[in-house]
Amino acid sequence: MAHHPDVLGFFDPATHTVSYLVSDPATGLAAIIDPVLDYDAAAARTSTRSIDAVMQLLRSAGLTLAFVLETHAHADHLTAADHLRETEAVSIGIGARITQVQSVFGPLFHARDVTADGGVFDRLFEDGDAFPLGDLTVEVIHTPGHTPACVSYRIGDAVFTGDTLFMPDYGTARTDFPGGDARTLYRSIRRLLALPDDTRLFVGHDYLPQGRDDYRFETTVGAQKADNIHISGVSKDAFVAMRQARDATLGAPQLILPSLQVNIRAGALPPADEAGRRYLKLPLNAI
Ligand SMILES: N[C@@H](CCC(=O)N[C@@H](CS)C(=O)NCC(=O)O)C(=O)O
Ligand SMILES: [Fe+2]
Q1: Which of 76, 172, 205, 246 has most ligand 1 atoms within 8 Å of CB, for mutation?
Q2: What residues line ligand 1, using a CB cutoff of 6 Å?
Q3: Which of 61, 186, 209, 282 is most buried, with most CB under 10 Å away?
Q4: Rounded to two decimals, what is the model's pTM?
Q5: Contacts for 37 with CB less than 8 Å, ≥ 6 apart
């Protein structure tokens, strides 16, 4: 079944993020999509508890980690990508438009070490790029809208949407981050929904909608087309009006400032000062 990867989702209750371990049953080669680095904001302390659990499972299943794949520069949690590169010597891939995100947030954080060329990542993906994961093929679909650099990864019959789609009863992601755009998100979603109905979709977050008390993160193209509360039977203009009205009510994600300054560095912490200490910055009245 070279077209049916094994997929395990790991839900982080602190940020409502889902990380995925996806593997080729034939060769045992694996990728981790959107790994989380735990962050205690009060103590400014990072921890690898969540990613350690993913790695433990990977090892006990006898899998070999080949890639870390980011769907975008997350604004709500820190990525464990750099930690995995340091400990497992794997390469990190992200959408090529990450340069646009770096060019906005590098200056905001006055991050002199951040060059807006994506060079801190190992692979910069363009729409349509494809590469092997064992006997499987990973196809990159540029799905901008939530951010300009968002990509979805299609691996066999599974697509990892990041924040391009959420569960049908929650709808879609916000489009008010720099370079985000509701019209563009609608177009990206329509592209994903043109895939076969039985395509498995794995979403990047689950925020419990009213009336549901169990976290879910797997759905299908058919289910999204039939039931997504923001998309099903909704015209582009109606979607844009709904999305913009809703975005205007949303506050900044709790971890947006710690997250972005780390995530534009592929998860590396800012450089240490002469005393060997690392600091995050909190630009005042800036976002
Ligand atoms: N309350 C969450 C919100 C995080 C957030 O804004 N998430 C983005 C994705 S990165 C989103 O699209 N949220 C949709 C929504 O809040 O309706 C936090 O503070 O972390
Ligand atoms: Fe996001």
Answers
A1: 76
A2: 15, 75-76, 163, 173-174, 205, 207, 250, 253-254
A3: 186
A4: 0.98
A5: 46, 47, 48, 50, 51, 77, 78, 79, 80, 83, 262, 267
